[in-house]
Amino acid sequence: MNATDLSKPRPFRKLLKGVRTNIAFIAMLLPGLFVLLINNYIPMFGVVIAFKRYRFNKDFFTSIITSEWIGFKNFEFFFKTPQAYEVTRNTILYNLVFIVLGVVIPVMLAIALNELLNKKLSNFYQSIMFLPYFLSWIVVSYLAYSMLSIENGFINRSIINALGLESINWYSEPRYWPFILTFFQVWKYTGYNAVVYHAAISGIDSEYYEAAAIDGATKWQQTKFITIPLLQPVIIIMTLLAVGRIFNADFGLFFNVPKDSGALYSVTDVIDTYVFRALRNSNSVGMAAASGLYQAVVGCITVFTANFIVRKIDRDKALF
Predict the structure, then answer these.
(1) pTM for the whole thing?
(2) Spatial separation of the C-alpha atoms in residues 263 and 65, rounded to whole Å
(3) Which 3-state string (H, E, C) describes 66-130?
């Protein structure tokens, strides 16, 4: 060993050895890291807009530098508004319902698909369930309108009126919309989640089921003691990712599907839609940036807290 190698710290020598050994893998990783840096980390410089009174000056970076620093004043517009509690409550409660239903229903469907003996039929059902995931909320909003319109909606004309009842003005009745929004959320995303869980079930070794069948276990017992326990890591990861966005709402769902009806704001207004209207009316980029930063920070804290709890219960099932 020469003097140069001896002069290098041992961890540094291990790092160099690791780089030389895995140079091919590192080269494959570089394009992804470059995209991640450009798309996710460099834009983080823009969070300072949340603490400034943004005014455009020549170009974007010059505007950030020259804009007046106002501290936390941009956050005040949200926390001091009378609707702050209402939109925060709606955002959290809807997301909690979506998280629960986004696990229970897809897992049940995935297990049912896995039990189908005809795999071609199983693939067909997966495709049918997956299709709504690719539809934009604009398309879904018109589908909803075709069902809920007071004049020509399918529900009013073909069901309610056919029973001799008076048409319901769905877009003016807030009490129905928690169920309507939940239905369309579940309808759109259940197929995607079911495919994820079905893929995880397909990866379970068939020998577990064969051994259980030899011991006399029923299909329900196999599901209860083999499928669900082995699905837990995937369920926990999907849940933790959803928990991280508990303060973020699906803008398309809450803005387009209710047609931005003011009569429904008490049950359809969430943080994202409220901030959008505030930005549209006040043209304050700083206020919108402050709201986005607030959601990101709280979401990060939430997912770290949830992951910490999972690690305490079972370290192997934690996300990180």
Answers:
(1) 0.83
(2) 41
(3) HCEECCCHHHHHHHCCCCHHHHHHHHHHHHHHHHHHHHHHHHHHHHHHHHCCCHHHHHHHHHHHH
What is the tens place of the pLDDT at every residue in 103-149?
999 999 999 988 887 878 888 888 898 999 999 999 999 999 999 99
Integer Cα distance of 91 and 273 in angstroms: 10
Q: How many CA atoms lie within 13 A of 108 on its CB side?
A: 7
Which helix (H) or strand (E) segment is 21 a member of? Answer: helix 10-21
Closest CA to 193 of 133, 136, 134: 133
- CA–CA separation, 257 and 137 (whole Å): 7
Q: What is the largest CA-CA distance in the chain?
A: 96
Nearest to 304 by CA among 243, 248, 232: 243
Q: Select from 245, 248, 277, 247 the least CA-distant residue to 260.
A: 277
| Residue 50, burial from CB neighbour count under 10 angstroms (0-12, 13-18, 19+) | buried
Q: Are strands 52-53 and 68-69 parallel, antiparallel or unpaired?
A: antiparallel
> Given CA atoms 13, 17, 22, 28 in this order, what sign does their dihedral have?
positive
CATH 1.10.3720.10 fits 84-317, yes or no: yes
Q: Which residues of 4-32 are buried (b: 16+ CB within 10 A; e: fewer)?
A: eeeeeeeeeeeeeeeeeeeeeeeeeeeee
For the chain, give every domain's residue range. Answer: 3-69, 84-317
Whose structure tokens read 């995607």? 192
In the chain, the amino acid numbered 273 is T
Q: Which residues pair with 57 in a beta bridge?
A: 59
Q: Point out which residues pair with 53 in neighbouring strands.
A: 68
Examine the pLDDT at 1 and tell me if it is beyond 80. Answer: no
Q: Worst-scoring range by mean pLDDT, 15-29, 191-205, 221-235?
A: 15-29
